[in-house]
Design a protein that fits this description.
Distance between the termini: 72 Å
Strand content: under 5%
Number of strands: 0
Shape: flat
Number of helices: 11
Largest sheet: none
Order of helices and strands: HHHHHHHHHHH
Number of domains: 3
Length: about 300
């Protein structure tokens, strides 16, 4: 392919990524409305109904699905079979309502646009060598391609930490609500109304799954798989055992509330025990040199004066 067509191809990829992002944003909006309805948080109103098929614009009704099928076909041809499964799992852990194909093509289009812009900018600087003109755009494009994945991993870890921090309060509220006479789904609905952030989204999804007929043990097991949280995995096991044995959910909630507090205390002790190790590097790099200068400085000056150095 001639180099003349490279800019056109790069701009086409950027346009596809922009259209895909707009479509995903609107899809995520309606998904939030549906999840909220299933969780009992919204009431059906006249202005909340999804758009009729004929009222949907032609671009969203025809062009966007065609682009979606095209990018899905290309993505599965140029990437391994396990790549999209792992990327979908990362996106779910990070709470991003976007398909793996859209995320992959967005990264690809941004890196291609950065590469093109980098070549345009470096060739406007006559002081650079040919090697620098080739290397700088490639490095910039590689950084732009890798950064979304790093940001996604960081967001997933932060989201999991936020969920783990809210678990003690969640299990205490569930235990108190069940002891007060509420069923588990009613207690979970009460808890969801008092939550916010990532924990609210995940437990709203659990409540929606239960209202669709999925057993509570399976819904909680899916939550543990999505978040990869050890306390939630143990809680799902306790609920499954309670369902098999016919025991009430109240004792399991009490046990889990106590275990999660012990787990948090153990994590706090672990972090406290690692502080002396983490502080070694700052002490060696910043504190010890200053101490050596203060303590040994006068002695070195005296030695230099004594030997007339």
């Amino acid at each position: 392919m001639s180099l003349v067509y490279v800019p056109a191809v790069l701009f086409a990829l950027a346009f596809i990524a922009l259209a895909r992002w707009q479509s995903e944003r609107r899809t995520a909006k309606w998904q939030r409305v549906i999840n909220a309805r299933l969780a009992g948080q919204l009431t059906v109103g006249a202005g909340d109904d999804p758009e009729d098929d004929l009222a949907i614009p032609y671009v969203r009704r025809v062009i966007v699905p065609a682009v979606r099928r095209l990018e899905r076909s290309i993505a599965h041809r140029i990437t391994p079979a396990t790549f999209h499964g792992e990327l979908d799992e990362k996106l779910r852990m990070a709470g991003v309502k976007q398909s793996s194909e859209s995320f992959f093509f967005g990264r690809l289009a941004l890196s291609a646009a950065t590469l093109l812009l980098g070549f345009v900018l470096v060739f406007l600087l006559p002081s650079l060598t040919l090697a620098e003109r080739l290397l700088i755009p490639i490095v910039l494009a590689l950084v732009v391609y890798l950064y979304p994945n790093v940001h996604l991993n960081t967001k997933a870890q932060k989201r999991l930490a936020d969920i783990d921090r809210s678990l003690p309060e969640i299990f205490d509220l569930l235990s108190v609500s069940v002891e007060a006479g509420l069923a588990f789904d009613g207690a979970l609905r009460k808890v969801v109304t008092s939550l916010e952030g990532a924990a609210r989204d995940e437990f709203s999804r659990v409540l929606a799954d239960m209202q669709l007929g999925i057993p509570r043990a399976e819904s909680l097991a899916s939550l543990a798989r999505r978040t990869k949280s050890a306390p939630l995995r143990r809680f799902a096991g306790l609920v499954a055992q309670s369902d098999r044995t016919g025991a009430g959910i109240g004792p399991a909630l009490k046990v889990q509330a106590r275990d999660i507090k012990d787990y948090r205390a153990a994590k706090a002790r672990e972090k406290a025990a690692s502080i002396p190790i983490k502080i070694i590097i700052p002490m060696v790099v910043f504190i010890f040199p200053a101490m050596f200068v203060i303590i040994l400085g006068p002695a070195v000056v005296s030695i230099l004066k004594t030997f007339h150095l």
